[in-house]
Amino acid sequence: MPETPTELSVSLWRGGAEGRYESYRVPRRDSQTVLDVVTYVQRHIDPTLSYRFACRVGMCGSCAMTVNGRPRWTCRTHVAKVAGSGRLEIGPLQNLPVIKDLATDMAPFFEKWREAKGAFAPSRTRADAMPRIRPDSPARLAADAAIECINCGVCYAACDTVRWNADYLGPAALNRAWTLLNDERDAGNAARLRAVAASGGCHACHSHQSCQEHCPLSLNPTASIAGLKRRTAAAYLKGELKP
Q1: Which of 66, 93, 182, 240 is the S-S candidate for 142 at Cβ 3.0 to 4.6 Å?
Q2: With 0-12 CB in 10 A as exposed, 13-18 as middle and 19+ as buried, what is 194?
């Protein structure tokens, strides 16, 4: 049985959009994560390396990077699972502008969220009685299936349609719109339906399901987008949306 290498050969993206990969040698350790590898380089080899992280336990999603060609949370990705040959290539998330090294600008991602009307629009004031919502109602179940998104950007980085179509809102923003459409407390659904039915909205999705395949929380934005397609089609037939 071959011995496990004692070192990792690591290629890290350095610079901005016109940067390059640089190679480093990092000690291999038990239970080592990809984030541990990046942190080792920054603390022991090159302190100018830029990257983003916060919780280190898979709660915030800010440590997402491209690992051997696949977008992942680096804090939950163990080296043993992705670097069997002892080699790692770590880059910034795709489909987002590179600020420096492994840190990307999330502004376009959240701008798409705004365009999809992803903010809750309350239908009541604090003076009104709190509405009772049955947890087993179809709308609540539909919202619950998609509500755990933490905006890490992995699905956006994995999406082929985002790569081809700069106007596409992306799976995370549309997934958020779907949860709000199924929230009976929300008062913004008329504007939200118009937003997701417009050019670059839900009908631009090609249903490749890359978002579902890569989501670290095993959510299914493709299913949410399919729900939006059905809902907007019904709105057209009812005359609620103009063609």
Answers
A1: 182
A2: middle
Residue 239 in tokens: 């005359």
Tell me: pLDDT of 1 over 50. Answer: no
What is residue 202's DSSP assignment? Answer: G
Rounded to whole angstroms, the Cα distance separating 182 from 120 reads: 11
- Which token pair is 82? 């992705």
Tokens of 198: 């417009």
Closest listed residue to residue 20, CA positions, set 7, 11, 29, 33: 11
SS3 state of residue 77:
coil
Beta bridge partners of 11: 23, 89
Do 223 and 207 meet the contact criterion of CB atoms below 8 Å apart? no
Rg (alpha carbons) of the chain, rounded to whole number: 21
Domains by residue range for the chain, with CATH: 7-104 (3.10.20.30), 107-237 (1.10.1060.10)
pLDDT of 79 strictly over 80: yes
Max CA-CA distance within the chain?
Answer: 70
For residue range 28-51, list pLDDT tens digits in order.
Answer: 999 999 999 999 999 999 999 999
Tens digits of residue pLDDT in 233-243: 999 999 988 76
Residue 100's SS3 state is strand
Q: Which two tokens stand for residue 91?
A: 């880059």
Listed residue (203, 205, 174, 196) closest to 240, CA to CA:
196
Query: What is the per-residue pLDDT across 95-118, written as a single tens digit (0 to 9) for each?
Result: 999 999 999 999 999 999 999 999
